[in-house]
Design brief:
The complex is a heterodimer of chains A (131) and B (364).
Chain A lengths: L10 E2 L4 E6 L2 E6 L1 H7 L2 E5 L6 E2 L4 E7 L3 E5 L4 E6 L2 H4 L3 H4 L8 E5 L11 H11 L1
Antiparallel strand pairs in A: 1-2, 2-3, 3-9, 4-6, 5-8, 6-7, 8-9
Chain B lengths: L2 E2 L3 H6 L3 E5 L2 E6 L3 H10 L1 E5 L4 E6 L3 H8 L12 E7 L5 E10 L2 E6 L4 H10 L7 E4 L5 E6 L3 H5 L15 E6 L2 E6 L8 E6 L1 H12 L4 E3 L2 H10 L34 H10 L3 E8 L11 E4 L2 E12 L4 E9 L8 E6 L2 E8 L13
Parallel strand pairs in B: 1-3, 4-14
Antiparallel strand pairs in B: 2-3, 4-10, 5-8, 5-9, 6-7, 7-8, 10-13, 11-12, 12-13, 15-18, 15-20, 16-17, 16-19, 17-18, 19-20
The chains are: A alpha+beta (131), B alpha+beta (364).
């Protein structure tokens, strides 16, 4: 299996999104494995600011040259900010999926849902199965 | 069990992402489809196409036989000339598209990897009782495609063949790095370039040598697909198959009605007489972010009129492009249709092929 980055301090979904929870704000994006599987990302349909989203609801799409994937919200809440830079330069997600390639920030409405997400360790196990 | 080409280990050393394709484990990309694609358009990309099938037809009746089983006219080929052709079913459906090489003792038919077994049995089933010898050489041949405007500059120092004298769709035998090779000025990218047939055990050495050039980078199946689609070339299994015929696929130019009998001729003459019902078209989506994908439905107003057979983001044009079949009366350039891209109807306009018009491929 190739080496994929899985930062310790993040939470993960089975659909290969990550969430960084700080207080009631979660920053979200897609994982290193996800960007690698998609390949060159050419367009990201970002979620709408101020929209209310449910946990694991589809909130956007990610188009790569060969394929397209839905983006799911790891947590319920309200989208308060999106990474506008990705409209012009979606390849940032390929280059830095956990940093400059963040996709959106959510004000979370139900902190208990964080428990439904995978830890870095669990996500690594998932990758060992799928990758 | 997936088959491996002679370059399997080389691809791994280069860090390729390997995928199953036509029964082979093949590199879909090394670093990035877009980078590999653009490199081929500007410099030279090196593809492993050893998975392609090779069927040899020899014997005193080889010409007559190849003429009977293919749609184009092999009698028009001079020694070492190459032509694009098809195998057809009795009803005119396309069994495969292929290259026909006229060689010293007969013909070499280069077929799609996904169809090699099917094609070989079909050819055997139709063989003449005498005068032809048919062999499946697919496991005894390695094949490289060096494609891009700098291909000749890169390959010439390694071969005793005078490439400057080789026209488009011509071939020659000679040495490449001292190894016996058949080299042709052919390809599937729209750029100038060569396809190099070698013994399997010689393929890797030539592969690494070509990669030593600063102008050459390896390119995978992903770029091969986006490059051919920008040129409007058909991919078997997507744009043509046993349910499509050459007339509706825009391949009338490789059907030689004026030669003798061939399998599928009668059906095609009837189809020609009655007129085709649908036609293969190329389209661009109006919103550059709308990227069409295979199997999405094509609409005119509320009516479903066809299906996308190939679609991608075009790295050269930086927008969505696609091909598909629509009723003949809607197939005119400039016609506006729509494509259902995940529940949203995106406006698409029919355009002339190729999509990409700057290719350096030598015109016949």
């Amino acid at each position: 299996m190739p080496e994929y980055k899985v930062p310790e301090d993040l939470k993960y979904t089975k659909e290969h999104e990550w969430a960084k929870v700080e207080g009631d704000i979660a920053t979200i994006g897609i994982t290193d494995y996800a960007q690698s599987e998609l390949g060159d990302i050419v367009y990201i349909e970002l979620p709408k600011v101020d929209s209310e989203v449910g946990q694991m609801a589809p909130i956007g799409t990610i188009e790569a040259v060969k394929t397209v994937a839905d983006l799911y919200s790891p947590l319920s809440g309200k989208i308060i900010e999106v990474n506008e830079k990705l409209s012009q330069n979606p390849s940032i997600v390929n280059n830095d999926p956990y940093g400059e390639g963040w996709i959106a920030k959510i004000r979370i409405s139900n902190p208990d849902e964080v428990e439904n997400l995978l830890s870095a360790e669990d996500y690594m196990k998932l990758l060992e199965e799928v990758a | 069990m997936l088959k491996k080409t002679p370059l399997n280990e080389a691809h791994r050393k280069l860090g390729a992402k390997m995928v199953p394709f036509a029964g082979f484990e093949m590199p879909v990309l090394y670093r990035s489809i877009i980078d590999e694609h653009l490199w081929v358009r500007e410099k030279a990309g090196l593809f492993d196409v050893s998975h392609m099938g090779e069927i040899e037809v020899r014997g005193p009746r080889a010409l007559e036989f190849v003429s009977y089983i293919t749609s184009n006219d092999p009698a028009k080929l001079e020694l070492f000339q190459v032509q694009y052709s098809t195998f057809l079913k009795d009803d005119g459906g396309i069994i495969d598209d292929l290259l026909v090489y006229r060689l010293e003792n007969g013909f070499l038919l280069v077929v799609n990897a996904s169809n090699t077994e099917k094609d070989f049995s079909w050819v055997m089933d139709h063989r003449f009782p005498d005068g032809v010898t048919i062999r499946n050489l697919s496991d005894e041949v390695g094949e490289l495609a060096l494609q891009g405007p700098l291909a000749e500059e890169v390959l010439q120092p390694l071969t005793d063949i005078d490439l400057s004298k080789m026209g488009y769709y011509w071939a020659a035998r000679g040495k490449v790095m001292g190894k016996d090779a058949l080299v042709s000025r052919t390809g599937y990218t729209g750029e100038d370039g060569f396809e190099i047939y070698l013994a399997p055990q010689d393929t890797e050495e030539v592969f690494w040598k070509l990669l030593e050039s600063e102008h050459v980078k390896p390119a995978g199946l992903g770029a091969r697909d986006t490059l051919r689609l920008e040129m409007g070339y058909c991919l078997y299994g997507n744009d043509i198959d046993e349910t499509t015929n050459p007339l509706e696929a825009g391949l009338r130019w490789i059907v030689a009605f004026d030669k003798g009998d061939f399998i599928g001729k009668e059906a095609l003459l009837r189809i020609k007489e009655e007129g085709i019902r649908r036609k293969r078209i190329g389209f661009v989506t109006e919103a550059p972010r709308a990227i069409p994908r295979q199997h999405q439905k094509i609409y005119q107003g509320e009516a479903e009129v066809g299906e996308v057979t190939s679609g991608t983001f075009s790295p050269s044009l930086k927008r969505g492009i696609g091909m598909g079949y629509v009723p003949k009366n809607m197939a005119k350039r400039g016609t506006r249709l729509s494509v259902d891209i995940r529940g949203k109807k995106e406006v698409a306009e029919i355009v002339g092929l190729p999509f990409y018009k700057e290719g350096t491929v030598k015109k016949p």
